[in-house]
UniProtKB/TrEMBL annotation:
The keyword Hydrolase applies. One of its GO terms (molecular function) is hydrolase activity. Keywords: Hydrolase. It comes from Fimbriimonas ginsengisoli Gsoil 348. Residues 2-81 form the HD domain. This is Metal dependent phosphohydrolase. The keyword Magnesium does not apply.
Length: 157
């Protein structure tokens, strides 16, 4: 999210926070996600655009569809970033630096791989931001490779 914010001249802090916080409540409140988290963030005074982006990443539950850039990009990055992480974890090196666009797109065509990832959301997310899946994968890879150490995706030593 921060990478796309920089590319688009958007608020990197807000976009980064939306990306970081959008699923924070899922483990402890899966049935109430993201409503529980949104309520807590609202109570704590988080900016409304961050809360709205979190709502839009799960429109089926919240009824908020992604319309603003932060909302569209969060939706687009959500499933794909998790999928790229899964592709990284199955590599012997566990390094995102060795993941290529073609590796990700090939795995996307294998329904049994990371079966919990909604492939339709990956496709519609890319369309929502006006990119092909390959272009979006390439961008997300660049972003994740740039922050591989922070993400724990630099590989085994």
């Amino acid at each position: 999210m921060r990478w796309y914010a920089r590319e688009l001249g958007a608020d990197e802090e807000a976009w980064g926070n939306a990306g970081l916080l959008h699923d924070f409540d899922y483990e402890q409140h899966p049935d109430e996600h993201p409503l529980w988290g949104m309520a807590l963030l609202r109570e704590q005074g988080w900016p409304q655009d961050v809360i709205d982006a979190i709502a839009a990443h799960y429109a089926a539950k919240t009824g908020v569809h992604p319309t603003t850039p932060i909302q569209r990009y969060l939706f687009a990055c959500d499933e794909l970033s998790g999928f790229i992480t899964a592709v990284t974890y199955v590599r012997p090196s566990k390094s995102v630096h060795e993941v290529e666009v073609k590796s990700v797109t090939k795995k996307l065509k294998t329904p049994s791989f990371a079966a919990g990832v909604n492939r339709d959301d990956v496709q519609s997310g890319a369309e929502l931001i006006g990119l092909s899946v390959d272009e979006h994968v390439a961008n997300c890879l660049k972003a994740m490779q740039a922050d591989a150490d922070k993400l724990g995706l630099s590989g085994v030593q």
